[in-house]
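Appendix B. Extra example for self-study. Work through it before the problem class; the solution is given directly after the inputs so you can check yourself.
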Amino acid sequence: MSQAADLPLWAALPVAMLLVVGAGLALAGSIGLVTLKSFYDRMHAPTLGTTLGIGSILIASMLYFSVLQTRFVLHEILIGAFMVVTTPVTLMLLARAALYRDEREGNPDAPPRRPPPTKD
Amino acid sequence: MKRWFPYPLIGLGLALLWLLLTESVSTAAFLLATALALAGCGTLLRLRFPKARLRRLGSVPGLLRDVVVEVFRSNNAVARIILRPSREDARRSGFVRVPLDMRSPHGLAALACILTATPGTVWVDYDSTDGTMLLHVLDLIDEDAWVRIVKDRWERRLMEIFE
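Solution. Structure tokens for the complete assembly:
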């Protein structure tokens, strides 16, 4: 953005801080995706980026464009709402696929199978 | 009114979504937003989407505040776990089966969103025959403590709103 120099200092500081926090969380999530041991553990790592990480970056974007265009720019709220609603679906699909395979193959990662429901 | 807007909240949400996306409050935008709300509600009606009955909306702000606090706290906790692999051996992750009393599909969906939005917990499976939910926890210290956290902190309050 070429107009970035027009941003007053009081807005530039929080925008920069929020961007660094958001990017840092996304980086931590990616590191976790590489370093954590099991599939189920790795599933948790990217949620850092999809919650507080994306939240900080969206707030920074709202602040930046609201100050530069001197009007409220709010459609980032929609991105946040869609992220909150859609990530559980993806994670559930991934987790259930892994669980299904682990149960079929009898891997030790899977939770102990529950006794079949009794008839009475 | 009831006939045209069988899902008032969802219709209102769709209309607001359109107005936010286009960032305008002109007559054309309002007309398109109304059309989108009508089309969305019509589709849901065809799909026989269960209607949500919201009660006690007064407890929603408190719940949202607690969710935000919990998101901050658990982001911090999970980032620490990832960036300090030296303690990796002491940490134990695992599954917890939580018996739920909530049966409202909307309440369960909200619970899934909350649990996924707080890093460190992932909703894995829900068994509708006995109403138990399988949760994976990254830093599992005590199974019973997690059952209590899910039931007392979230489920009880969601049931106040959705059931």
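Self-check: Helices of chain A lie at 9-35, 39-42, 47-69, 76-105. If your reasoning did not lead you there, revisit section 3.
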